């Protein structure tokens, strides 16, 4: 039995018939254009290298590759009769946690007073991974935000997927720059399950430079819905310049001066108070344990969770198949293959019909 970690991505397979239809339409259009120049049978003799069948072969290989890539993204996992430990369902008691992670450009700045120190984003990833390690029976989800907020991982008990998504986070994930903390909190509130018996918490990881909306009001609405908001602040009040990919520092186009971003600790603490949670500085060695202790105060509820062992992952098999076909596709041409010209797969009888 095959299951998928992200089954919603399988909807991308609907693109395959769309691609096939576009190809058929292009072939029909090509045939009509050739008919304008004369008899197609005569024109084909003027194009001896053109193959009738190889374009269809190449299309088939391309569609298979696309299908395998979609399956790869959906992350297949196998459950066999022999490997009974591949997945197990168990009843757990825990809470639901939605993490809102700031991925604005200011998160590229140093998390310490030393501008060459670890960036705020890298520090945030480290904290988040350690926080996931402390979870055993809880559910977790992930939202990234800058000028807009996007759900990166719906609420789940699959910690392996959670860590995979954390490792892939970058500031390029959100095209609109800014720090819309309020929008991220609103999206997080709508991402929890409808179960009112389970404790719910939002962990906000940011430098708290909010320029977009009223985050405090959003935090108060969350608290009114019995959702606790804990804030982990990153950066220092001294401020730091934002490095760019070319080794320079970001320039404000309005003033022509280098952008200096500072950690707004007051705003972070204000959001935490409004959300009935706590504020901790991400540079503190006790930040993770403080957040974990605070979340332990929430009401736990029973829910069924399914865990998978690494042996059940079919990712490598599908990846190798896709890679082999990608290499084979390089050698699949749309013209006639020279060494096949000596073979006649279709001959005509005396009446002109094909045998």
Characterization of this structure:
- This protein is of the alpha/beta class and 355 residues long.
- Helix content is 36%, strand content 18%.
- It has 10 helices and 12 strands.
- It has helices at 15-35, 40-45, 54-74, 120-134, 159-167, 181-189, 215-224, 265-274, 287-295, 315-331; strands at 2-4, 76-78, 87-94, 96-102, 139-145, 149-156, 200-206, 227-233, 240-241, 260-261, 279-281, 301-308.
- It has a 6-stranded mixed beta sheet with strand order 6-5-4-7-8-11, sandwiched between helices.
Distance between the termini: 44 Å
Report the biggest beta sheet as strand number plus sense, adding barrel if it closes: 6 strands, mixed
Proportion of strand residues: 15-25%
State the helix count.
10
Helix/strand-derived class? alpha/beta
Instruction: Report mean pLDDT, rounded to a whole number.
Output: 81
Strand order of the largest sheet: 6-5-4-7-8-11
Low-confidence spans: 80-87, 350-355
Helical fraction = 25-40%
Mind telling me the C-alpha Rg? 28 Å
Q: Write the H/E string, N to C.
A: EHHHEEEHEEHHEHEEEHEHEH
Q: Indicate the overall shape.
A: elongated
- For the secondary structure, the number of strands is 12
What is the topological layout?
Layout: E1 2-4, H1 15-35, H2 40-45, H3 54-74, E2 76-78, E3 87-94, E4 96-102, H4 120-134, E5 139-145, E6 149-156, H5 159-167, H6 181-189, E7 200-206, H7 215-224, E8 227-233, E9 240-241, E10 260-261, H8 265-274, E11 279-281, H9 287-295, E12 301-308, H10 315-331
Parallel strand pairs: 4-5, 4-7, 7-8, 8-11
Antiparallel strand pairs: 1-2, 3-12, 5-6, 9-10
Helix pairs in contact: 1-3, 3-10, 4-5, 4-9, 6-7, 7-8
């Amino acid at each position: 039995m095959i299951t998928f970690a992200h089954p919603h991505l399988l909807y991308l397979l609907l693109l395959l018939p769309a691609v096939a239809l576009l190809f058929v339409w292009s072939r029909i259009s090509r045939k009509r254009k050739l008919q304008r120049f004369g008899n197609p049978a005569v024109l084909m003799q003027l194009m001896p290298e053109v193959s009738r069948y190889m374009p269809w072969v190449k299309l088939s290989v391309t569609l298979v590759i696309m299908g395998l890539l979609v399956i790869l993204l959906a992350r297949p996992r196998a459950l066999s009769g022999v490997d009974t430990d591949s997945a197990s369902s168990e009843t757990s008691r825990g809470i639901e946690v939605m993490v809102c992670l700031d991925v604005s450009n200011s998160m590229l700045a140093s998390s310490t007073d030393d501008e060459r120190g670890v960036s705020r984003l890298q520090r945030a990833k480290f904290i988040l991974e350690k926080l996931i390690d402390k979870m055993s029976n809880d559910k977790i989800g992930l939202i990234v935000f800058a000028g807009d907020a996007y759900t990166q991982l719906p609420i789940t008990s699959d910690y392996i997927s959670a860590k995979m998504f954390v490792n892939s986070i970058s500031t390029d994930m959100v095209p609109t720059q800014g720090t819309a903390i309020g929008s991220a909190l609103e999206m997080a509130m709508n991402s929890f399950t409808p179960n009112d018996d389970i404790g719910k918490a939002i962990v906000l990881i940011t430098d708290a430079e909010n320029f977009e909306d009223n985050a405090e009001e959003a935090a108060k609405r969350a608290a009114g819905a019995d959702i606790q908001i804990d804030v982990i602040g990153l950066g220092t009040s001294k401020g730091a310049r934002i490095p760019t990919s070319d080794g320079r520092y970001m320039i404000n186009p309005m003033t022509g001066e280098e952008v200096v971003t500072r950690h707004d600790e007051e705003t972070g603490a204000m959001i935490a108070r409004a959300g009935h949670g706590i504020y901790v500085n991400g540079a503190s060695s006790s930040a993770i344990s403080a957040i974990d202790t605070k979340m332990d105060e929430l009401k736990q509820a029973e829910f069924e969770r399914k865990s998978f062992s690494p042996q059940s992952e079919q990712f490598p098999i599908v990846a190798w198949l896709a890679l082999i076909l990608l290499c084979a596709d390089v050698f699949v041409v749309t013209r006639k293959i020279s060494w096949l010209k000596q073979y006649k797969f279709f001959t005509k009888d005396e009446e002109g019909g094909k045998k």
